[in-house]
Design brief:
Order of helices and strands: HHHHHHHHHHHHHHH
CATH topology of the largest domain: Vanadium-containing Chloroperoxidase, domain 2
Low-confidence stretches: 1-33
CATH class of the largest domain: Mainly Alpha
Structural class: mainly alpha
Number of strands: 0
CATH architecture of the largest domain: Orthogonal Bundle
């Protein structure tokens, strides 16, 4: 086994052995503090309806929606309901992974802030179902305008607008206002910037056309200060001994794949990676019978962390424009099609390592499992023939650092674990 492959194997071993993230022990937590918000300055942010007077913020459109609403059986856990619809709509639209992740982050940051605001004692009793539906309605219509009619029907039904009570209408107004803040952020996050080139050329440089989201690395981050603050070491110099070892390792792996390895490649490739980690969280929230606010905040922490990891990774990809294995190895047979963007670093590795740290904080008893899953996600890209070992090693390292940073913010909260799982 070459030095590069050995380093990669050791990295995966560490990822799977449950090494704790650099967070404070339970007995040494910081003093209790207020819940962190993602979009609002506080539960009574001046941009939100006044506490106790939420209904006054209703507009003609809201009243028309209430007039046309029909009663339906409301979901027991609204954040999980809207999570399911977001997953469905993003999947149907075949969003590239960073945009899939962005949709999750916007929806869940909006719902989480809306529900936290609704529980502030200065506000009267508000329907959590209406609060969540109001936020989801605004954000999902922005993200998926082609499904606007369906979103309206789902939102008004889940909100219970047909009831037209003060707690429902006030909750809808509050949620709607937070949703608008999410849309305002989305319209200013840089995701609509247009790439005009040029694509660099030279030995070892990615060759292709219409690269996917080359400006994603400049998008606005949610938690980390900037993508530049979490970057890997540079890629190996083209033609260096380390580079040539990486190339040879991929070529040899492609000649010796096992059926089990191919199965793992598909496990991590047949669904968008943020949806895979989302499913792991949703399964556990359902099993724990988590309440709506805990669910909303767990989803928000996971998906804002994943989105920041994507932004950091894409900054790396389009800083170096490193060629993919099939562009370096004549006749290479890959298990899956190679994505249409540069190789260094691996998106799967980066976002999975970041997600694993958040999941380990939420469910400490399963920390080794989550870190092992991140390692497997990285290895799947190597076995699939679409990434070099160095892409994965550095992606795992950066992802862990981003995840640890997110956890450090989680630990500042009143309930660091969010769930009573300790």
């Amino acid at each position: 086994m070459s030095k590069g492959a050995l380093v990669f194997s050791l990295a995966l071993l560490v990822a799977g052995c449950g090494t704790p993230a650099p967070t404070s022990p339970l007995g040494e937590r910081k003093p209790e503090g207020a819940s962190r918000t993602f979009l609002v300055g506080s539960p009574v942010d001046s941009r939100l309806p006044s506490a106790g007077s939420e209904i006054s913020a209703l507009g003609d459109e809201d009243r028309a929606l209430a007039a046309g609403a029909r009663p339906v059986a409301a979901a027991a856990n609204p954040p999980l309901y809207w999570n399911g619809l977001t997953t469905e709509l993003a999947g149907a639209k075949k969003l590239p992974p960073p945009l899939f992740s962005r949709a999750y982050a916007l929806v869940h940051a909006g719902i989480a802030d809306a529900l936290v605001s609704a529980r502030d004692r200065r506000r009267g009793p508000l329907s959590e179902a209406a609060v969540a539906a109001g936020a989801a309605y605004e954000i999902l219509r922005y993200l998926f305008p082609e499904a606007a009619d369906r979103i309206a029907t789902e939102a008004t039904g889940q909100a219970g607008l047909s009831e037209r009570s003060g707690r429902v209408l006030g909750g809808w107004a509050l949620g709607h206002a937070v949703g608008r803040l999410a849309v305002d952020r989305a319209q200013r996050d840089g995701s609509d910037a247009v790439f005009t080139g040029p694509i660099p050329t030279g030995p070892g440089i990615w060759t292709g056309t219409n690269p996917v989201l080359p400006l994603c690395g400049a998008w606005k981050c949610w938690l980390i200060p900037a993508s530049a603050d979490f970057q890997p070491e540079p890629p190996y110099p083209y033609g260096s001994p380390e580079d040539l070892e990486d190339v040879e390792d991929v070529a040899q792996a492609a000649l010796n794949r096992t059926p089990e390895q191919v199965e793992i490649v598909h496990k991590w490739a047949d669904r968008s990676p943020p949806a895979i980690w989302n499913a792991l969280l949703v399964e556990r929230l359902e099993a724990a019978n988590a309440d709506p606010v805990s669910s909303a905040r767990a989803l928000a922490w996971l998906h804002t962390t994943i989105e920041d990891a994507f932004i950091s990774c894409w900054s790396t990809k389009y800083s170096y424009w490193v060629a993919r294995p099939f562009q370096r190895i004549p006749g290479l047979v890959t298990v899956i099609p190679t994505p249409n963007f540069p190789s260094y670093t691996s998106g799967h590795s980066t976002i999975s390592a970041a997600a694993a740290e958040v999941m380990a904080e939420l469910f400490p008893g399963e920390a080794p499992f989550f870190r092992a899953q991140a390692g497997e996600a990285a290895l799947s890209r190597f076995w699939g023939g679409i990434h070099f070992a160095h892409d994965n090693n550095e992606g795992l390292d950066v992802g862990r650092r981003i995840g640890a940073f997110a956890v450090s913010l989680m630990l500042e909260e009143r309930k660091p674990a969010l769930l009573a799982a300790r």
